[in-house]
Amino acid sequence: MSLLFALFAVNWVFFACHAAPTGQCKATRNTATSYSGFQIWSITPHSQSEQTALFKIIKNYKLEIWKETKELDDPVDIMVPPRVQKEVRQKLKEAKLPYDIEILDLQKEIKNENPIVNASASTRNAAHQMDWTRYHRLDDIYGYLKYLADTYPCHVQLINIGTSYEGRPLYVVHISNSTSAHTPAIWIDGTFHAREWISPAVVTYIIQQLVEDPANLKLLQNVDWYIMPVVNPDGYEYSHVSSRLWRKTRSPSEVESGRCQGVDPNRNFDFKWGGAGSSSNPCSQVYKGPKAFSEPETLAYANFISSISYKTKLYLTLHSSGQKIMLPWGYDRIVPHNFDEMLALAQNAACKFKLFNYKVGNKVDLLYRASGNSADWAASIGIEYVYSVELPIRGFVLPASNIIPVSQDFFRAMDVFADKVSTLTVVVK
Ligand SMILES: [Zn+2]
Fold first, then answer.
1. Structural contact between residues 398 and 304, judged by C-beta atoms closer than 8 angstroms
2. Which domain range does residue 54 map to?
3. Are residues 275 and 357 both part of a single domain?
4. Gap from CA of 321 to ligand 1 centroid (Å)
5. Which residues have C-beta under 5 Å from ligand 1, the single-atom ion?
6. Do the Cβ atoms of 40 and 106 come closer than 8 Å?
7. Are residues 335 and 250 in the same domain?
8. How many structural domains comprise the chain?
9. What spacing in Å lies between the alpha carbon of 127 and ligand 1's midpoint?
10. Which residues are catalytic?
11. What is the pTM of this model?
């Protein structure tokens, strides 16, 4: 075991991208939400009664869960606002539930996660602003995609598939070495959930490797790649300028008296929409929306993938965090007919990772039910290999120095996926 791996394995706590319905943080109009004094606590129930007591406290104080698990002896991580810390501490004490403080002051973590760019030392005169030493705003990401399309016109095509609620373009990059309609394709996306900043960082890293590193040209042999780094651009921008922990889209609630905005795009798909693991409450972090595909982002996404579904053989959607490769179905504890083939390929891919051990399995077994999620929809339209990935390392607020190790490690799986997909046959209808 390398020292690097040992450090990762021992010291980092892994948080799932789940959140309970809450609205705890106050933001003054036109100012960013402050998480000053907010803490992340980790509690490990060892019995069913302890687990029940813990979730009762979470529910009573409307605490946001950062890492959910159903297994005993596995820690649950929660965000505790300063105004209830004293009471929650007392309730945990009464329930004989000890806790560890994982993050002492969330605002300090947020302040330190992204390096400040020195304008004089920036690459302002360069063709693009993108690198993988910090988290980038949408303009930098889109600027990089345009740069690639301009610079590598034989391999890269930038496709505008629609417009977000707030009017931002939705871009897919098509990377290909072929003009054949029979070339099997891989779909990859990121940033369904705005606050999961490591997701677009890893997805753009994959694009960079496929396009700009000649050593990876082999991955384009009989494989087309369609990659969408930012599915939810409105939420992503909002998470940068207004509320770091924003998760959903930015469409207004249809409930007249509602103060809550946004739909969980990963509960908004038209397959088992509205079932377990989604909410009808517009203030919930897992709000399913007023109807399936109510969001322009999910509708454009589904329309585009449907148009290439005849040749799309493998689907990857990247979230954070939890260090898991999850297979359908997510709406219930059942598996698709080709689960074993899907599982074997994911296990082969996970074997390639050197820094992080990903768990591989059915989504409901590894995480929770999530009806109306995009991966279930992708499997429902016939894509053979469908994976929803929770990238590694703790929580949503992750120092940018982690981008490169997480990206490099995950990219190793692309060899396995491309090898498999290149052997599959496309039937043109
Ligand atoms: Zn997510």
1. no
2. 31-113
3. yes
4. 8
5. 17, 193, 319
6. yes
7. yes
8. 2
9. 31
10. 390
11. 0.91
